[in-house]
Specification:
The complex is a heterodimer. Chain A is mostly beta strands. Chain A contains no helices and eleven strands. In chain A, strands 2, 4, 5, 6, 9, 10 and 11 form a seven-stranded mixed beta sheet that branches. In chain A, strands 1-3-8-7 form a four-stranded antiparallel beta sheet, with no helix packed on it. Chain B is an all-beta fold. In chain B, a hairpin with a 2-residue loop joins strand 6 and strand 7. The chains are: A mainly beta, B mainly beta.
Chain lengths: 114, 109
């Protein structure tokens, strides 16, 4: 089966600019996650969708980050305006409902804010 | 706040040696997953352990879930350069994954 697709792979922007990331999950996976991973650390959950509804966005900095999954399939994550501390890898993952089968991750987008 | 602590944070050994990495918490998890992440890629699921005391083997990798389902270990026998990567554990708590910070493993030829 095709994996989780993410684009772009790399992005360099200046602080205060905006950026958007795209994710297409594995077909049939109801749950989609966006994670932020800072170098040398484990992933930090930003937002979890179940179909097109938000399940958990408690760690999403809502003053600058937004995400949507309008049709319950692909998703976009936006940052506006970006800060230096947003430099990280943004990972998208999908799973069947629940966690027992594990998550399938995309390759991520490496964001550098200068 | 639930935490998963992984140790060591960093390990560099020679090819052929054995090693063990640990994942510890004061919380009970319904299951625990181990992932390996290579540079420039997302984490890849290696195994899920569910039952307290469970042991699973994946070729040279042996995973154990503690009896109380609060901790886990990963043992690698005769490590190879291809085992190099970041090893992450993640505990399932109320259908959400709690992630450790990872163990960065380097196997030198």
């Amino acid at each position: 089966e095709a994996g989780v697709a993410q684009s772009p792979r790399y992005k360099i922007i200046e602080k205060r600019q905006s950026v958007a990331f795209w994710c297409n999950p594995i077909s049939g996976h109801a749950t989609l996650y966006w994670y932020q991973q800072i170098l040398g650390q484990g992933p930090k959950l930003l937002i979890q969708f179940q179909n097109n509804g938000v399940v958990d966005d408690s760690q999403l900095p809502k003053d600058r980050f937004s995400a949507e999954r309008l049709k319950g399939v692909d998703s976009t994550l936006k940052i506006q305006p970006a800060k230096l501390e947003d430099s990280a890898v943004y990972l998208c993952a999908s799973s069947w409902t629940g966690t027992e089968y594990g998550y399938t991750f995309g390759s991520g987008t490496r964001l550098t804010v200068v | 706040t639930q935490l998963l602590e992984q140790s060591p944070q960093f390990l560099s050994i020679q090819e052929g040696e054995n090693l063990t990495v640990y994942c510890n918490s004061s919380s009970v998890f319904s299951s625990l997953q181990w992932y390996r992440q290579e540079p420039g890629e997302g984490p890849v699921l290696l195994v899920t352990v569910v039952t307290g005391g469970e042991v699973k083997k994946l070729k040279r990798l042996t995973f154990q879930f503690g009896d109380a389902r609060k901790d886990s270990s990963l043992h690698i026998t005769a490590a190879q350069p291809g085992d190099t990567g970041l090893y992450l554990c993640a505990g399932d708590s109320n259908y959400q994954l709690i992630w450790g910070a990872g163990t960065k493993l380097i196997i030198k030829p």
